[in-house]
Structures are given as structure tokens and as C-alpha cells.
């Protein structure tokens, strides 16, 4: 079989993205808009985006910061709290908000305002079922008694399965899955009696296992939450993403932090991949001979899950090595990308 040197796919979407706010926006959006037509915008700002009014204002700031003539579309999400009302859910649907985000309190960056007990959200979740708005879940428990590498698997048993039983009409996206248990759960989930379920998978969790954090010393730019797992889990994620199963789709979870807050005694969690996301995914798919399935994962399955039209424009990738820069401007500071200073095999050419 001849080697594939160029691939053209329908322009993809990013179904999980952090772009922060303020003077960070122009630099971060330039990278995302160069590859993606749309992106799910995470609401964990300070303060969090908990209402339609806050979402509308954030969207306006995003639009103002986009490169001239950009057609990029931000898809807005509200931050679920213990106090989210059914009326706010209905208002969100009427104003074009596409989902709500569940952050268990304390699970990740800026999650301190997150949900403390899902039973407090019953009215909001019932309204989401009625409105057809998906719940996007950060799938980790936060109890100190649970090992950090087991938090996702425990979440499935203690939170996700009971949630689906209590709210059988709820659509759910299990975001940035990291374990073989999560991949199997989503793949095998019963959607005849319960709401549809999908999962996003990041490039870092497809390409690296937890050894990457510690090779040659602590490497903070490989530290994210959920944390990288064992090799058996990485392999399961690659198998899921490249399987052609429509429940698995692209979500980078690109999460920028100023260099000094990553290279720090208490470094922030998050990998920055917005600049080179599609070359990273292409590398992961090529390694298992599945480039022919990249378009479904990157450009089709996510749009179908959200009930949105697929894009019509194209993105071209070429087998052409290029160097990942050491850092990028980010407002008044810099951000270090994943694989900084390393060579990637694929480049975006159009």
C-alpha cells in the first residue's frame, strides 16, 4: 500500500476548548480559527459563565477578538451550579446556548463554583431533558480517598450511571475520556432506554501515557486533568477514536496557561494544543493506519451528536515535517505548547 502524503477532510470542529478571556483572546482564537469552523467554548472563567446574559457578553467579546473576516463560530455553554434554575435552562435554549457543563466542585481549573450534589440540580436536569440540551461532564470524582488515577472509573459507577438512570432522557457528553473503562462504557451504553451519549478524546491522551509527565524530570506541560493514564488506557482511547464509532469525536481540551503558572511549584493543569491539534490527531491516526477514519472523528460525529449541520469547507493536511515553536504570545505573557521544540510529521497547508 502506498504511503498517504496528503489528506483533505471536511473542516473539523473542536467540541471542547478553553480560550480564557480578555487580552488572551486574540492570540488564542487565531490558532483555533485557522483549523476549526466551530468550537464548544468552556465556561469556567472567573467568574464562571452561569447565565445567558453572561454568555451573550462573553460571545460578543469572542467575536470582537476574531481575526478579520473569520467565519469561526463559538458555541456557548453555561456552567451548571447547585442553583441553576429550570427557567435559566429554557432561556438558554431560546438564546442559542448549546449545552450545560458539569464540573464537580474542585475537579479542575476554576471548578470551585461547580456542583456539590447533583440532586440539587434535579429541576435544571429535568428541563435539559425536556429541551434536548446536552450535559457535558468532567468525569472525575473529587474525594481525597480516591486515587487520582482512578477518579474517572469511580465517576462512572458513582455518578454517571446513577445520573442516566435518574434522567433517562438526558443527552450526555463524557468529555476528555482517559480510561479503557470510559471508552467501553460509552461504546456499550444502552441508548434505547436512555438518552444518547458521546465522548470527546484529546490528542494528548491518544499520543502519550503518564510516563510523559516524568521522562527526564517533571514535565509540567504534559500535566492535565484528567491526568494521563497507563499505556493500556492510551491504547483503548486510540482504538475508540479510530474505530469509526459515531459516539467518539474530537475535543482538544486545549487549555492555555501562562508559562510561569505551568512551570511552577504548584503548576496549573492543561495542555495547549490549539495551534497544532490537527497534525497531532493525524499523527495518532496514522500510527494505527486509520487516516481514512479521521474525517468522521474530526468533522462528522460531533456535529451529528449536537444536531448541527456538517461543515462544507475543507482542510488539507500534508505529510511535511515541521517544528513546534517553543512558545507563543498569550496576552502579556507566553504559552508553551504541547511538544514544544519537537518535530511533527504533519502540517496544515490549507
Structure summarized in a few sentences:
This protein has helices spanning 25-33, 52-65, 86-94, 122-131, 151-166, 180-188, 203-207, 231-241, 259-262, 277-287, 294-306; strands at residues 6-10, 14-17, 38-41, 73-79, 99-102, 135-138, 172-175, 197-201, 248-250, 314-318, 322-323, 328-330, 333-335, 343-344, 347-348. By secondary structure, it is an alpha/beta fold.
Q: Can you put this structure into words, describing what you see?
A:
The chain has 350 residues and is an alpha/beta fold. The protein has a single domain (6-348), classed as Alpha-Beta Barrel (TIM Barrel). Helices cover 32% and strands 16% of the residues. It has helices at 25-33, 52-65, 86-94, 122-131, 151-166, 180-188, 203-207, 231-241, 259-262, 277-287, 294-306, and strands spanning 6-10, 14-17, 38-41, 73-79, 99-102, 135-138, 172-175, 197-201, 248-250, 314-318, 322-323, 328-330, 333-335, 343-344, 347-348. It has an eight-stranded parallel β-sheet. Strands 1-10-15 form a three-stranded antiparallel β-sheet, with helices on one face. The chain has a two-stranded antiparallel ribbon with strand order 11-14. Helix 3 (86-94) runs parallel beside helix 4 and helix 6 (180-188) packs parallel to helix 8. The radius of gyration is 19 Å and the shape is globular. The chain starts with 5 loop residues before the first strand and ends with a strand.
Amino acid at each position: 500500500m502506498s504511503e498517504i502524503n496528503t489528506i483533505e477532510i471536511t473542516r473539523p470542529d473542536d467540541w471542547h476548548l478553553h480560550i480564557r478571556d480578555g487580552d488572551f483572546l486574540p492570540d488564542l482564537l487565531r490558532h483555533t480559527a485557522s483549523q476549526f469552523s466551530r468550537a464548544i467554548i468552556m465556561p469556567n472563567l472567573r467568574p464562571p459563565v452561569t447565565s445567558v446574559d453572561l454568555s451573550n457578553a462573553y460571545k460578543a467579546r469572542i467575536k470582537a477578538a476574531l481575526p478579520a473576516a473569520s467565519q469561526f463560530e463559538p458555541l456557548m455553554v453555561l456552567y451548571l451550579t447547585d442553583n441553576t434554575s429550570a427557567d435559566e435552562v429554557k432561556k438558554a435554549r431560546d438564546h442559542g446556548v448549546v449545552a450545560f457543563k458539569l464540573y464537580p466542585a474542585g475537579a479542575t481549573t476554576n471548578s470551585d463554583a461547580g456542583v456539590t450534589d447533583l440532586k440539587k440540580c434535579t429541576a435544571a436536569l429535568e428541563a435539559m431533558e425536556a429541551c434536548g440540551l446536552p450535559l457535558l461532564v468532567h468525569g472525575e470524582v473529587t474525594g481525597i480517598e480516591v486515587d487520582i488515577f482512578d477518579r474517572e472509573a469511580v465517576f462512572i459507577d458513582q455518578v454517571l450511571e446513577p445520573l442516566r438512570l435518574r434522567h433517562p432522557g438526558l443527552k450526555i457528553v463524557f468529555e476528555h475520556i482517559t480510561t479503557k473503562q470510559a471508552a467501553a462504557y460509552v461504546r456499550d451504553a444502552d441508548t434505547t432506554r436512555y438518552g444518547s451519549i458521546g465522548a470527546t478524546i484529546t490528542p494528548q491522551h491518544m499520543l502519550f501515557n503518564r510516563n510523559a509527565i516524568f521522562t527526564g524530570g517533571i514535565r509540567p506541560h504534559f500535566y492535565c486533568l484528567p491526568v494521563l493514564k497507563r499505556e493500556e488506557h492510551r491504547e483503548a482511547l486510540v482504538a475508540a477514536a479510530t474505530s469509526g464509532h459515531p459516539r467518539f469525536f474530537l475535543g482538544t481540551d486545549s487549555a492555555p496557561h501562562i508559562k510561569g503558572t505551568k512551570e511552577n511549584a504548584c503548576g496549573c493543569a492543561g495542555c495547549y494544543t490549539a495551534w497544532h491539534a490537527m497534525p497531532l490527531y493525524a499523527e495518532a491516526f496514522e500510527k494505527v493506519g486509520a487516516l481514512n477514519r479521521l474525517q468522521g472523528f474530526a468533522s462528522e460525529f460531533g456535529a451529528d451528536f449536537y444536531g448541527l449541520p456538517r461543515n462544507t469547507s475543507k482542510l488539507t493536511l500534508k505529510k511535511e515535517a515541521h517544528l513546534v515553536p517553543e512558545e507563543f504570545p498569550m496576552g502579556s505573557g507566553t504559552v508553551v505548547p504541547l511538544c514544544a521544540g519537537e518535530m511533527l510529521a504533519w502540517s496544515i497547508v490549507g
